[in-house]
């Protein structure tokens, strides 16, 4: 395992500014999404492509028993939301790292926030309501460690349109106004599904002591990029997978595309820099890390890699400066301390040699 920190592989959300003009995304059908994939030749088995909000009619029939005739839009929406977790309804329980499509989540009675959103989007539309996936636009990202991987997670939800720019979210069951959410299209939501599943497959293999299924992850991420060509997280993650598969050129190209579509993200430039250092191009790596540090100057991993890139370029003094910054941000950062000690030791040896 390389001493270099493995930077985010997968993340659940793209946190970005409010975009209101996405109502058309509420009416995209599963068949239309499959047709898009067929045109892009993203997968030879388009008919088997999972569309996360697609529902078996038996679940629609079950939900109907909890609705009364002539219910208002608001009352119907609230009833559907309450049916998700209620023991008298579907009884679905929250389960972390379980990005399941609606049918599977209902069958297994578990799933994460994306799974709950998928069920609600499918049910709401089945009963004539306009519903869409949405991302939380406030800073709710959390960084979790999984072995050598740093994983950024966020929050995704479902909104049901009540009229006059008012929506009901699945969390509170009451009307909310725009300002905290960004509606995303069905295509982008399905891309999130494949993006998340790619990571979860790798996590499950690690848990079971099996070889990482990099090829399976690659197939899922290709589908994600075909569905949402500007989904920078999927491009970043595809770069990670390609790097693990030994395709350095493709990995670099994917990281650069991720940077193009996600200029405010630090994952892709950091991953790109790590790879460039590994293949002996530290000067190029320094450029990527400098940009990343301008976006996030509180991330010790960025400054650690910046120190390494500078040191590999023969610039010891700037390397020491970057490593000291990394340690100031994280006093327990062992790798940064070890590299700093190595650089200072080399400098001491050079001074002794010059004195002799």
What's the number of extended β-strand segments? 9
Compressed to H and E, one letter per element, the order equals: HHHEHEHEEEEEEEHHHHHHHHH
Largest sheet: 5 strands, antiparallel
Strand order of the largest sheet: 8-7-6-3-9
- Radius of gyration, Cα only, in angstroms? 23 Å
CATH A-level architecture of the largest domain: Roll
Quick rundown:
With 356 residues, the chain is an alpha+beta fold.
Report on this structure.
- The chain is an alpha+beta fold.
- The chain has helices spanning 30-40, 57-64, 73-85, 102-108, 113-126, 186-207, 214-227, 232-244, 248-261, 267-278, 282-295, 300-312, 316-329, 334-355, and strands spanning 93-94, 110-111, 131-136, 142-146, 149-153, 156-163, 166-169, 175-177, 181-184.
- The protein has 2 domains: 23-228, Roll (C8orf32 fold); 254-355, Serine Threonine Protein Phosphatase 5, Tetratricopeptide repeat (Alpha Horseshoe), CATH 1.25.40.10.
- The chain has 14 helices and 9 strands.
- The strands form 3 sheets. The chain has a 5-stranded antiparallel sheet.
- A hairpin with a 2-residue loop joins strand 4 (142-146) and strand 5 (149-153).
- Helix 11 runs antiparallel to helix 12 (300-312), helix 12 packs antiparallel against helix 13 (316-329) and helix 13 (316-329) runs antiparallel to helix 14.
- The model is unreliable at 1-26 and 352-356 (pLDDT under 50).
């Amino acid at each position: 395992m390389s001493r270099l920190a493995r930077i985010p592989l997968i993340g659940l959300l793209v946190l970005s500014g409010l975009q209101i003009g996405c109502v058309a995304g509420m009416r995209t059908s599963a068949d239309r999404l499959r047709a898009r994939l067929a045109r892009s030749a993203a997968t030879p088995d388009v008919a088997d492509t999972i569309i996360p909000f697609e529902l078996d009619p038996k679940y629609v029939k079950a939900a109907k028993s909890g609705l009364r005739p002539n219910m208002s839009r608001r009352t119907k929406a609230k009833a559907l939301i309450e049916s998700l977790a209620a023991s008298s309804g579907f009884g679905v329980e929250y389960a972390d790292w379980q990005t399941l499509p609606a049918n599977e989540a209902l069958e297994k009675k578990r799933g994460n926030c994306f799974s709950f959103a998928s069920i609600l989007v499918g049910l709401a539309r089945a009963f004539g309501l306009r519903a869409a996936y949405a991302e939380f636009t406030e800073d709710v990202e959390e960084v979790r460690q999984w072995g050598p991987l740093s994983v950024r997670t966020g929050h995704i939800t479902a909104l049901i349109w009540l009229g006059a720019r008012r929506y009901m979210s699945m969390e509170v069951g009451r009307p909310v106004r725009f300002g905290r959410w960004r509606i995303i299209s069905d295509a982008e939501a399905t891309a999130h599904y494949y993006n998340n599943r790619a990571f979860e497959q790798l996590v499950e293999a690690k848990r079971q002591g099996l070889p990482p299924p990099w090829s399976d992850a690659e197939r899922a991420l290709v589908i994600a990029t075909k569905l949402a060509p500007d989904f920078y997280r999927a491009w970043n993650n595809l770069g990670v997978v390609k790097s693990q598969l030994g395709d350095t050129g493709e990995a670099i190209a994917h990281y650069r595309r991720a940077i193009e579509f996600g200029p405010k993200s630090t994952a892709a430039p950091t991953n790109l820099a790590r790879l460039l250092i590994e293949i002996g191009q530290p000067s190029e790596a320094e450029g990527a890390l400098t940009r990343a540090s301008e976006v996030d100057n509180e991330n010790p991993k960025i400054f650690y890699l910046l120190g390494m890139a500078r040191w590999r370029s023969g610039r010891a003094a700037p390397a020491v400066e970057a490593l000291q910054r990394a340690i100031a941000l994280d006093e327990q950062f062992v790798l940064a301390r070890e590299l700093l000690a190595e650089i200072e030791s080399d400098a001491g040896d050079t001074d002794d040699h010059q004195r002799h």
